[in-house]
Amino acid sequence: xxxxxxxxxxxxxLRDEGYLHVQVVGRSGDQGADITARxxxxxxxxVQCKRQAAPVxxxxxxxxxxxxxxxxxxxxxxxxxxxxxTRPALDExxxxxxxxxxxxxxxxxxxxxxxx
Length: 116
Hints:
Largest sheet: 5 strands, mixed
Strand order of the largest sheet: 1-2-3-4-5
CATH architecture: 3-Layer(aba) Sandwich
CATH topology: Trna Endonuclease, Chain: A, domain 1
Number of strands: 5
Order of helices and strands: HEEEHEHEH
Number of domains: 1
Distance between the termini: 26 Å
Structural class: alpha/beta
């Protein structure tokens, strides 16, 4: 699965769970988020997707926090990866970003809601 296929796969999972206005933003000009959506109660989310084998580092978390602060004000930041997160990434994201690693992704794929 390519990175772009992964983004569409995550968008489909969001739709299946009932998220609204799910849009894959696109490569050029995405301003740091791959997908935008709304929860059923109207809360805005900005999702960054990382399909990779290596653990996601803290720099990726900081980039997403910056994107939400500058381009996606009012959105909840969410980072979904097919890998794991480094300890510094977990520390950086705590309280700022919803982090979904491959284990939580599998649970989500099996029907466990994200709970955003």
